[in-house]
Amino acid sequence: MLQLLNNIIQQANEAPDLNHALRLIVNQVKHNLSVDVCSIYLMDDKTNELVLMASEGLLEQSIGIVRLRFNKGLVGLVAERAEPVNLANAHSHSRYHYFSETGEELFHAFLGVPIIQHGSVLGVLVVQHSSKRSFKEEIVKFCATLATQLSVVITHLKAIDGVKKVDKRTHKLNTNIQFTGIPSAPGIVIGTAVVIDLNLSIESIPDKTVENISDEQHRFMKAVHAVKSEIKHLLESISDSLPETYTTLFDAYLLMLESNSFIGAVNDEIKKGNWAQGALRKIMLEFIKTFSEMEDAYLKQRVEDIRDLSKRLLNVLNNNTLNSIKYRDNSILVGHELTASMLAEVPKGKLSGIISVNGSSTSHTAILASALGAAAVLGIDDLPISFIDGFTIIVNGYSGQIFINPDNKRLKEYQLLVTKDQLATKKLWDDRHLPSVSKDNVHIPIYANTGIISDIKPAISSGADGIGLYRTEFSFLESEFFPGEKEQENIYKHVIESFKPHPVTMRTLDVGGDKTLPYFPIEEDNPFLGWRGIRITLDQPEIFLVQARAMLRANIDSHNLKILIPMATSLHEIDNAIALIHQAHQEIVQEGLETPFPQIGAMIEVPSLIYQIAALSKRVDFISIGSNDLTQYLLAVDRNNARVAELYDSLHPSVIAAIYQVVSSAKKNQLPVTICGEMASDPLATILLMGMKIDSLSMNSSSMPRIKSVIRTMKCNDCEKVLSDVLQMEEAITIKEYLISVIKDKGLFGLINPGN
Ligand code: PEP
Ligand code: MG
């Protein structure tokens, strides 16, 4: 049964569109479960009706015609209850509703299971039988399991249909195709989609038009030769140790790579103007289809080998494609998962926005996007990335909406919003050098979060009072190996000197979690709970010592360095890290050089430290709240996982209470406290942080003017009152609504909602 389930899902995934997929599913279910009818009803979002979309067993004429609301018929009952209904004789049920066009009077037994995604009913899968006996447990379990998987397939195919559909009247591609994701970096931009995530399954490889056919054919042949020599090499190295059955498999690969039917067919596809990957997909899927339909079990299994071979070819093709992507002006980077290095590849000035299937507002991709001034919407789980390369896209980084292929009316509407947003940003920008002082005269310094060299100038010109968080790992990510001591010293020196005499807080290496170095791979089931931050560098003191020495050397002339320790769980980690910094300092002094011992701070990211602030105050000079991780660990919600992103909320009452406790105990122990997580750049959260009397805030440069405007408009005393109201509230949504009303009262609504 499991094999059948997997086959149905795989075939549905490979279907060219939703209708084909639904027809295929009902056909497979009817024949393999030996039932008389299998049908699928899907919700029509416009009319809120369930529509019969595909059926094997009901009369053809009823497809697309039968429609019912949740309160009508047995199908409506399944949707209404959101659970299976299994009846021996449907006709005698009070909710039975007869549709004459279906011919269903012949069928008595009825089983309906809901197809649900993210808590909403997408449709209903129904099987029916002529005899008067309810369906066996086996069938119910199968259909219920199939339905859970169908929700993903249907959502995905619906999204693809939305993009590919051609308006029958105008013969033009659909316009204004809207998707919603997680607003992850502010800004509204209009640009052209550049799909760069090429780590896709063979089915999802997009078509792309190429101009130079012979170059593309040459690229394909180069990939074929590269894979041939890779396989020959593999064959040589394993032929002694493997039985012949395995080595003949590789011979078969080689034969295919030399066969004219394969090479010629792909080259013919390229001749039609498609790029090599698209041509390869087309031909490989034809091979896969032919083999999977074969009777012979051995030949049928060769499908997996064809997939393997396709992957090898794609790997080579994709690697040389990444280097040759043409980034246009106003590029909107699109991918399944976009990494910091993919963003770093885009030439300066070309990146306007990013959109992706994975990721969330505090993932490091979002943080980097903000630093680069690009609007970002992440976590669009049904984004049909394979079909949108080259389309015009509107990205609204405030609301999380995107529009693919906007029509003129929508474009004009958004161009207006872009202009308004730019004007508002310019106005804030013009005021950036005004002091960061509240209406009741409390000075709250604003520091910059950075980590990329190109961000240093914007940080300076945005009026930052220094650097509150320098994420050293970004320069490690851009490098091919662990950067050496001198190399690090040069980078740090540039940053430290650029800000002199203002403080520059450098965080020791914080890799692990969603930041892995290509030359230091970490494979873990639970990376965010695993080996990350200080846990790694205490286990590998040689990495820590080199970095600490580089920082101390970089500070020899400037004396404005502070060092920050990430991801500590217990005090002994802080003690050990400080001991290593002392060792590094000693080593430099022994060389006859003079460098001051810097102030040391600890990040409060792991909840265990919330309760150890007094003990911490005896060890460190300051603390910095990493609200991104603190929220993730307090709420047990992966900050990168779009599926649970709705649960990730830094305005959750417990997160606010925890931060309040940290700030209060820091004050009690005369320990300076700052916040460097994304919360510091949220105008709503700023009000609460001001109410807590936080000492300073650290954020990306692009957010500074907005936050400064909140600080300059509000009185800390009023914020204290708002905080005490909020501390009584029970739900994040209530807190958010309340804070929005406060922001509106102060005429600052435009900061979170441009155009207002
Ligand atoms: C944080 O966790 O809030 C933080 C600032 O660190 P990072 O986002 O780099 O994990
Ligand atoms: Mg962190």
Low-confidence spans? none
CATH topology of the largest domain: TIM Barrel
Helix tally? Answer: 25
Quickly give the CATH architecture of the largest domain. Answer: Alpha-Beta Barrel
Mean pLDDT: 89
Number of DSSP E strands: 22
Description:
- The chain has 756 residues and is of the alpha/beta class.
- The chain is 45% helix and 15% strand.
- The protein has 25 helices and 22 strands.
- The protein has an 8-stranded mixed beta sheet. Strands 15-16-17-18-19-20-21-22 form an 8-stranded parallel barrel, surrounded by 4 helices.
- Helix 5 (213-238) runs antiparallel to helix 6 (244-258) and helix 17 packs across helix 18.
- The longest helix has 28 residues, at 137-164.
- The chain binds phosphoenolpyruvate and magnesium ion.
- Magnesium ion binds at residues 566, 605, 626, 628-629.
Structure at a glance:
The protein is an alpha/beta fold and 756 residues long. It has 4 domains: 2-164, 2-Layer Sandwich (Beta-Lactamase); 177-196 and 325-424, 3-Layer(bba) Sandwich (Glucose Oxidase, domain 1), CATH 3.50.30; 202-323, PtsI, HPr-binding domain (Enzyme I, Chain A, domain 2, Orthogonal Bundle), CATH 1.10.274; 436-715, TIM Barrel (Alpha-Beta Barrel), CATH 3.20.20.60. The chain is built from 25 helices and 22 strands.
